[in-house]
Amino acid sequence: MQKKLIGLVAGVIFGLGLAISQMISQEKVLGFLDFFGNWDPSLAFVMAGAVGVTAVLFRFVLRRRQPLFDGKFHLSRDSGVDKHLAIGSALFGIGWGLGGFCPGPALASLALGQIEPVIFVLALIAGSLAYKWFAEKQK
Hints:
The chain is mostly helical. It has helices spanning 2-20, 26-33, 42-61, 83-99, 103-109, 115-138. The chain contains 6 helices and no strands. The longest helix is centred in the C-terminal third of the chain and has 24 residues, at 115-138.
């Protein structure tokens, strides 16, 4: 129950951060991605702030033997770049540019009651399920 409550609290904090920083605004995100037009660099500050806070606090968290509400840390040890990462990153970027949403902000945007985030999230789910289906066919 504690893990679920912590997940809920973390999700609310994350969602509030996305909303306050305007990362759930399609126009703001598309303005950030418009490098050769009317570029809006403000989201770079949001990302830098998030990465900076995480980089500092993560060092303190990882000094613990284990997390507060789990028996061990679940960290990826894979740091290699392969074709799956390259192709997935490219597709992610295309989807981000076309839709103006990143997955986390898209989920937070569902609360706005607009149709665009709903369509994006449904397409995100469809893409994830399509990958799962194709990956299982490859086995």
